[in-house]
Design a protein that fits this description.
Distance between the termini: 38 Å
Shape: globular
Helix content: 40-55%
Order of helices and strands: HEHEHEHHEH
Structural class: alpha/beta
Number of strands: 4
Radius of gyration: 18 Å
Number of helices: 6
Strand order of the largest sheet: 2-3-1-4
Strand content: 5-15%
């Protein structure tokens, strides 16, 4: 495995503005070559020892879980880990902020998907007042250095912000209330 080449579906311009719902068969037809490319990338990472860290952030119901499922369901589970940390313990609250994330970083050939990440400090923790303004300011000063250390060590770091409209968010919250299989979210 010498690498992987981008496929045509990845090279399209993003759609801006109103999007129509895609038919399931059309979606699956477009998804299949991307899944093959993902598997090829995972084999390449394993063969070369590459490390890939993916951060998925966004509002509740934005699609983080679905995106993680779409990625992880086709990749060897011994090679792809999902990290979704609960709220910090009493001990973790006394540690260096990034410490709880460092222990979940990856080894050669691995892919780690963070369902939320250290950016919680500037997002959820700020909004919910779990972090002081001083803590958030300190985080914003330190995060570029922390991420530079990761990248300088050879970790491929990808950060994605997913969003859903207010109407879509309300619709998905209502679905969760009605469906006991979705209430854990």
């Amino acid at each position: 495995a010498q690498g992987f080449a981008p496929i045509a579906a990845c090279e399209r311009e993003p759609v801006v503005g109103h999007m129509q719902a895609m038919k399931r068969k059309q979606y699956e037809k477009l998804l299949e070559p991307l899944e093959h490319e993902l598997v090829a990338m995972a084999r390449w990472a394993k063969a070369t020892g590459e490390r890939t860290c993916v951060l998925l952030e966004g509002r509740d119901t934005a699609g983080k879980g679905g995106t993680i499922k779409a990625i992880s369901q086709r990749v060897n589970p011994r090679q792809c880990r999902i990290v979704a940390l609960p709220k910090p313990s009493d001990v973790e609250r006394t540690q260096w902020y990034f410490q709880r994330y460092v222990q979940h970083l990856l080894a050669a050939g691995e892919i780690v998907l963070f369902d939320r990440s250290w950016y919680n400090r500037a997002g959820v923790e700020k909004v919910m007042r779990f972090a002081t303004g001083e803590q958030v300011d300190k985080f914003l000063r330190e995060v570029p250095t922390f991420e530079k250390l990761l990248v300088d060590d050879g970790i491929r770091l990808f950060k994605y912000w997913l969003s859903a409209s207010q109407a879509k968010q309300e619709e998905r919250f209502a679905e969760r209330l009605e469906d006991p299989l979705k209430r854990w979210k």
